[in-house]
Write the structure tokens for this entry.
Amino acid sequence: MPSGPRKERPLLFQLPRIASSCISRDGLVTTPDLKPSLKDQTMQKTALVTGAARGIGLATTKLFLAEGRRVAMLDRDAEALNEAAAGLENALPIAADVAVPDQVNTAVETMMGAFGRIDALINNAGVADFGPIAETDFQRWRTVMETNLDGMFLMSQAAQEALIASQGAIVNIASISGLRASTLRTAYGTSKAAVIQLTKQQAVELGEHGVRANCVCPGPVNTKLALAVHTPEIRAAYHDAIPLNRYGGEAEIAGPIVFLCSDVASYVTGQVLAVDGGFEASGVGLPALRS
Ligand SMILES: NC(=O)c1ccc[n+]([C@@H]2O[C@H](COP(=O)([O-])OP(=O)(O)OC[C@H]3O[C@@H](n4cnc5c(N)ncnc54)[C@H](O)[C@@H]3O)[C@@H](O)[C@H]2O)c1
């Protein structure tokens, strides 16, 4: 005998059910073809991309759309977001701040209401604020941590049930600064190193529920974020230190992100992928050693 009433899952997280039969105009019960075409199956898949109004997030959104996914684009810059989403078919702009729990929960509810599922969560929203340790006060530290680390934690927690239901994937965007220490990055570099560990925790624990989690660590990429903290001298020094001798393009980061969410990567989880033109590999790539 059951001990009590069965606990219903909240409606929000129930996957949309495909009707097994329907009544035609003449009253006959018909069974529709339940085998959607491959294209339809792909169209059903979705992705939630944070920081999608520009830069790497926008490039990732466009690539997912080109692959046939529906994409929820989340960003706290509502104006830039609406501008970016205008004209993008199958894209749903959601204005929210990943560092504010209520907004995160509402954003996930909005996406579930519109799409009914979350197949991929791309925790991409990030801020860069570089400064010496002596000038990094608690407020500065918190400003970086609340988006770069708290935001990824909050988004992942809110989307977890839906990701389990879809057997989906998480990709967290860290940075080469999470793998290699440098000056001025006590908050930024530490937040990104924590994102790498958060990814491994998620991979190990959520793997048992069929959810994969991987981390992408971009090297320097030509975006507004990089332009704000890289002077011309820093740019030249990066070119010199990177084996491919250049900054990456946004689409070059989007490609590996989309790959990690795809079925082709179905056995890849808990991995940290540096997408950096070889920067991480070049431990003693000193200019003097090369000349
Ligand atoms: N550009 C680089 O050189 C580089 C290198 C390594 C890692 N990364 C990482 O890649 C990610 C994307 O960087 P980008 O260069 O495209 O940055 P970007 O500044 O061009 O875009 C970031 C987007 O995130 C949004 N955002 C910031 N904080 C948010 C918050 N709390 N809630 C919601 N949205 C928020 C911004 O409004 C913006 O639209 C970041 O996590 C960044 O740390 C970038």
